[in-house]
Amino acid sequence: MQDTHDTQAEDAALLAAIEDSAETFLRERGGLAVPRRQRAFEGDALPKAEFDKKDWQEIARLGWIGVLVPSEQGGLGLGIESAQALARKMGRWLAPEPFTVTAGVASTLLAGAPSAAACELLEALVSGERIVGVSLDLEGLASGNVQCSVANCTDGVRRLTGVASYAVPADPSDGWLIVAQGEDVVGPAIVFVGAAEKGVTIERLREADGRCRARLVFDGVVLQAHSVIAEGDTVTALVNQAVQVGRILCAAELLGAAERVQELTIEHLTQRRQFGKAIGSFQVLQHRCVDVRTQIELARACLGEAAAQPSEIGAIRAKLRACRAAMEAGLAAVHLHGAMGTTDECDVGLYFKRILSLAPRFGNERALQARWLERVGESAGEHQQDGDEWIGEFAQTADWDAMPEDQFRRMLRAFLARNYPKHLRHMPRRVHWDEIGDWYRCLSRQGWIAPAWPVAHGGMGLPAAKQLAWFDEFESYGVARAPDQGILMVGPVLMQFGNAQQQERFLPKILSGEHIWCQGYSEPNAGSDLASLRTEAVLEEDNFVVNGQKIWTTLAQDATHIFLLVRTDKAARQQAGISFLLCDITTPGITVRPIRDLAGHSEFCEVFFDQVHVPLDNLVGKLNEGWTIAKALLGFERLHIGSPKHAQHALGHLRSLGQLSGLMHDPAFRASYAELALDVADLSSLYTHYGDYVRRGQRLPASVSMLKIWATETWQRIGLAITRHAGNAAALADAVSIGEGSMHLLAPLYNASAAKIYGGSNEVQRNILARTVLELPA
């Protein structure tokens, strides 16, 4: 059997080859000059060809039209992932050819139909001999709103009557596939109507990008035997499949356009100078570009999932997110190009108008949101039900890599159900050691306290995929986060940068819970700008003498030890003069002062250092090289903060509020809820995307900060929605009775507001992303 990694590598190589060939063809045939040439302007005589038939023949020769058609039916049979790669390139170059409609929707309808007429038309479509369009009023079949009908007439022939208001392409086209309701046949039908058929009236309607759609009126059009492609019970499923393909490929076109128009915008911001500097250095413009890129990253993640595992709900999410990303990219491009962006000469206008033309295809935003919510139900984003379906003992050690993931997850859920304190589930605040210590020691006795640590150091040695499953199950169950800086940060640091003596001295006591660690990073004037820290450590013989102050130190009042970033060389540049120290928090000269937060809890502390002596043996790594350690820890922290579980739990609060108050029957509330639920679902896709880096053992890229930004701001939006819809109860500080349970209505808003600052504030992260990912000027 072929190795999975080899198969994945081959698939990736094939996609790269398809993308390269498409990029070369579309660029070398004229690039954007092609869509410019084929546009129809106001006052132009219609019909006007939207694309060149010679180009269409070349696209057919390359096999693109048959990319989804099985090889036994004359196509390439490469699947939806290859098709979306081509569609993305079509969007990038604004290709005027109707790839999504013909190679996607039409080929799906014809390849899935059992009739001889379908086979004959499919062969002509794939070869490029015939250009087969589609009426995109396909969603009407699901809602019963089909405006065309087929009937047997008294003259013994079948005739088509009605209106197809959204047929693409308008010109050139040899005809269109139409969905019609049968008046005296069983179920709906798919028929092909030639453009030159008697009784067909074609009204051409110019769209924003200069292409046309056709409004087709059928007045008793005679249907020959070869005109009926499919009819009966199979039609509905076939149409649904075609719509799903259309949404995925339309999303890919939109994403391709979004990616390219942002590239053009960044090029402009880098080159354009005002007030003596490149305008791309202006923070407000940088932040807007980062927000656009975040939408693009979300769209990439959603489209990747939809193409890898096609489904109706996945296709809807991909279309919605790609549409939003493209719209925001287009709007930003026009605005950030200034007055030039509003002219026809500027290429960004071409992209914006293509985005406007593609946006309503296969369902507009509100219709798709409603359809998605209908399909997934109001429980969208709800975590799995509790379970105790485990027989036998819980293994302390095992071949975790070989254990199937569903079995591993069932084991975890059962262990949590039997052992985790019920009163500590879904806590609205960070818990203290006196509350959670027993649970920490329970995990320690089981050997499960350090899932990511190697077995040699007392951990479980979980592979990356199982680590993500572990955190997913614990967060879904509502396990409160213990003071775990020793497990998550100190342990990994000592394994990578510490010496054998430090590992032997500290690691066992972290596992047992004898040592509880806190983090000494931020200072009053060095929060997100951590490299400007001023807490000083001067080496005197065998001790560092530390003076200074740390702030926002989580649960320092519960800790026995603190790890510190300190300045050990004032003359060096900021990052180069920092070292990493370990310190017993009971050392003379250390004072801990808790800080009460917005919710009235004391999660954070100030820690003061006055002539504190720290042994030289407690220096981790080399002197003045602590910044390297700090950066390694922050990347993981941003992935952890980017987990969708906080937003999912808050969404559950909003859902319960809506259901118990009757708001779920209010269309405005349902629309708002659907939008937030989709934001959470797309967050999960983005989290999975970055989690894949961990699964593959790769270093997290700098763009992981986008995950942190989107997660915390989505969480905050849900918190705000709760307060807006909770009525006068939203002003209550304590838990409120909701149905059979209770809810801290303000907790999501409070906690999300703080999370936007953790791991570097979102605004500073946008600054960093602008420079490191978008490469905008400083």
Write the layout of secondary structure elements.
Elements: H1 4-28, H2 33-38, H3 53-61, H4 80-92, H5 99-112, H6 116-127, E1 132-135, H7 140-143, E2 148-152, E3 158-168, E4 175-182, E5 188-194, E6 200-206, E7 212-223, E8 228-231, H8 234-271, E9 273-274, E10 277-278, H9 283-308, H10 312-336, H11 347-358, H12 365-376, H13 405-419, H14 433-446, H15 464-477, H16 485-497, H17 500-512, E11 517-520, E12 536-540, E13 543-550, E14 561-567, E15 578-584, E16 590-595, E17 604-615, E18 619-620, H18 626-641, H19 645-661, H20 667-695, H21 704-725, E19 736-738, E20 741-743, H22 747-755, H23 762-772
Parallel strand pairs: 1-4, 2-4, 11-14
Antiparallel strand pairs: 1-3, 2-3, 3-7, 4-5, 5-8, 6-7, 9-10, 12-13, 13-17, 14-15, 15-18, 16-17, 19-20
Helix pairs in contact: 1-4, 4-8, 5-6, 5-8, 8-9, 8-10, 8-11, 9-10, 9-20, 9-23, 10-11, 10-12, 12-20, 13-15, 16-17, 18-21, 19-20, 19-21, 20-21, 21-22, 21-23
Describe the overall structure.
The structure is a single chain. With 778 residues, the chain is α+β, with helices and mostly antiparallel strands. Among the domains are: 516-625, Butyryl-CoA Dehydrogenase, subunit A, domain 2, CATH 2.40.110; 642-772, Butyryl-CoA Dehydrogenase, subunit A, domain 3 (Up-down Bundle). Helix content is 47%, strand content 15%. The chain is built from 23 helices and 20 strands. Strands 1, 2, 3, 4, 5, 6, 7 and 8 form an 8-stranded mixed beta sheet that branches. α12 packs across α20. The two termini are 52 Å apart. 45% of the residues are buried.
